[in-house]
Design a protein that fits this description.
CATH architecture of the largest domain: 3-Layer(aba) Sandwich
Number of strands: 12
CATH topology of the largest domain: Rossmann fold
Shape: elongated
Radius of gyration: 26 Å
Strand order of the largest sheet: 6-5-4-1-2-3-12
Number of domains: 2
Helix content: 25-40%
CATH superfamily of the largest domain: Crotonobetainyl-coa:carnitine coa-transferase, domain 1
Largest sheet: 7 strands, mixed
Order of helices and strands: EHEHEHEHEHHEHHEEHHHHHEHEEHHE
Distance between the termini: 29 Å
Length: 416
């Protein structure tokens, strides 16, 4: 973890992926992220994957470096405590222009009732709140329903399969989380300059549909009138294809640039056959679009070379010339065999996660040249920080905190 945004305090009220991922991103850059959960845990507290003892590895992964408190927000006093944390100031945070820190909220729960922005703004005028919804109109949508509607499953999977194929990574949740973190930092920058808070709305579905625009998919339909087909593991518009190896593995090969293409030809020794293919097809295979047009013929030429070699032999040959490729790996193979998922990569460190034990965990993806990396912090136990947060942020006494425990308005990890 770095401390690039040290002093920033964020209150997170969340579940599942998008908002917790935003909070994680900020926490790993040094923000003090306080996650509020209901007593006993929220909707995602036990989400799979879990250990043999039922501890959620998913929850532990998304909440590294945060502080966790449990509040019974079904009670008036519980809601008041939550509002106090969301609107509290930190005059020692070093913020400029006389605007102390705090007053930042991230949520992907319905921003109404006790989470209504106007109610919170009445208690702190410069409040920043980022509310993630499913659709822009406030209706429900999840990553998997958004992905289905965005069209990507229709071009995923084998070329001879007529049905949609979902990918398993919740990419729109992750993009929404990163976008939310960017939005918080941008809004905090404006607040430091002007003193103005604001409500920021982010629809999960907009992350997918904006991507359709940014990558040319919308224009492809409107300008060209095209309906893109599924084509298996070929890459649209260029040469990229998977091949079976001699040791029953598979590798992905790409040749997006002239350098990639020449390196692939050099490593595999197919230059003469490629020249003949160019003549037969009357194509210049130095051009990306021509390689796409000739993809099946190129793949047929390359197939025997890969089948005759192991992954290690292929790695040696392709790496020697700087070709662009990668092995297909299971999760287990990535963890056990790939040096990028190890402490050789400074992003990863071993952490001792309460209730789980020691395992490899990722810190911040960015390397900030101005600050060294600090230790990757594990996720807290659920409610571990309830007492310290209420004491340090709201100034509650031990007696007041004890009363709140007795009345079941708050809870800590030892009471689970």
């Amino acid at each position: 973890m770095s401390e690039i945004v040290k002093g920033l305090r964020v209150v997170e009220v969340s579940a599942f992926i998008a908002a917790p991922y935003a909070g994680l991103s900020l926490a790993q850059m040094g923000a003090d992220v306080i996650r509020i959960d209901p007593v006993g845990g929220g909707l995602d507290y036990g989400r799979w994957p879990v250990t043999k003892d039922g501890v959620s590895l998913y929850w532990a992964g998304l909440n590294k470096g945060k502080r966790s408190i449990m509040l019974n927000v079904r009670t008036d006093e519980g809601r008041e405590l939550a509002h106090g944390l969301m609107t509290a100031s930190d005059p020692d945070s070093g913020q400029s222009n006389g605007h102390p820190n705090g007053g930042i909220v991230i949520t992907n729960l319905p921003a109404r009732g006790w989470l209504d922005y106007e109610k919170l703004k009445a208690k702190r005028d410069d409040l920043i709140m980022l509310a993630i919804t499913g659709n822009r109109d406030g209706s429900v949508a999840l990553d998997y329903t958004v992905n289905a509607a965005a069209g990507f499953p229709s071009v995923t999977g084998p070329a001879d399969y007529a049905g949609p194929v979902n990918h398993v990574m919740p990419v729109w949740d992750l993009i929404a989380g990163m976008s939310a973190a960017n939005g918080i930092l941008a809004a905090d920058r404006l607040r430091a300059a002007t003193g103005d808070g604001q409500l920021i709305r982010l629809a999960l579905s907009d992350t997918a549909f904006s991507t359709l625009s940014h990558l040319g998919y919308v224009a492809e339909v409107q300008i060209n009138g095209d309906e893109r087909p599924a084509m298996g593991n070929h890459v649209y518009g260029t040469f990229g294809c998977d091949f079976e190896t001699g040791d029953n593995r598979r590798v992905m090969i790409t040749a997006f640039t002239p350098r990639h293409w020449s390196a692939l030809i050099e490593a595999t020794g197919i230059g003469e056959r490629i020249t003949k293919l160019e003549g037969a097809l009357e194509l210049d295979l130095g051009r990306e679009e021509a390689r796409f047009e000739a993809r099946d013929a190129i793949a047929a030429i390359l197939k025997p070379w890969f089948l005759a070699r192991s992954v290690d032999e292929i790695r040696t040959a392709l790496d020697a010339v700087g070709a662009c490729w990668g092995p297909y790996q299971t999760f287990a193979q990535a963890v056990h065999e790939d040096p990028r998922v190890s402490t050789d990569n400074p992003m990863f460190q071993m952490v001792d996660q309460p209730g789980v034990g020691p395992y490899l965990a990722s810190g911040e993806m960015l390397d900030f040249g101005a600050l060294p990396r600090g230790p990757v912090k594990p996720a807290p136990r659920l409610g571990e920080n309830t007492d310290e947060v209420l004491a340090s942020v709201l100034g509650l006494s031990d007696g007041e905190i004890g009363r709140l425990h007795d009345q079941k308005i708050i809870s800590g990890s030892l009471e689970e």
